Amino acid sequence: MKRKLTITIAASAALLTSCATQNELNAMAHGGYAFKPSSIKATPDEVVNHGYWDKPAHVTGAPCIVIDTQLQQATYYIGNQIVGRSTISSGKAGHGTPRGTFRILAKDIDHKSSTYGSIVDEAGNVLVSDYKAGQPIPAGGRYQGAAMNYGMQITNTGIWMHEGLVTAAPESHGCIRLPREMAKTFFENTAVGTPVIIK
Q1: Nearest Cα to 98, choosing from 157, 41, 147?
Q2: In this structure, what are the phi and psi dihedrals at residue 62, rounded to the nearest 5 degrees?
């Protein structure tokens, strides 16, 4: 499987050397990348599908995912080889995505949020579209968790990487959203225990 970006996206020079090639680190240190996050930001009504995956059969090594919340991108490494990148949407103001080094704790292909979602009636009609756990539920309503398909759990506090609306700007409640095809590809190629670096 091979998909290409129409916009060049680069990882930050602060990556661990195990997750970046020396050439890439040198290029970043000398300003070799022209990407600016604002060049691909979209309105909340637009969906961004930028991403690519190109994993040659001969590439071996330990996987590592690096999330750059400033550039709004996820970079996937096998050893020191970049095999994929995706535009993301991370946590918005008041719902920041945590920084640090984590590991994939669990995977769930059709995960549902236990905190955010909607309230629907018996027929499935939406009564409350932006519901947060703890708010009152109208009579006759029931909670329906927001879809977090291709979910990969990063923290024990509810932060997941999953399919969702991506605008290349912070939009989520703290999770890392990826476009559908990239979420599916990352999910299919990632084992529980894979390191995730968020900066």
Answers
A1: 157
A2: -80, 140
Please report, rounded to a whole number, the percentage of residues in the chain having pLDDT higher than 70: 76
Where do the H-state alpha helices sit in 38-197?
180-188
Handedness of CA 75, 78, 84, 88 (dihedral sign): negative
Total domains in the fold of the chain = 1
pLDDT of res. 118: 87
Note the pTM of the prediction, 2 decimals.
Answer: 0.73
- Residue pair 50/107 in contact by the 8 Å Cβ criterion: no
Domain harbouring 102, CATH code: 2.40.440.10
Minimal CA–CA distance to 193: which of 77, 64, 78? 64
Instruction: Say if residue 147 is exposed, middle or buried (CB neighbours under 10 Å; 0-12, 13-18, 19+).
Output: middle
- Rounded CA-CA distance 76/179 in Å is 15
Segments forming the whole domain that contains residue 136: 2-198
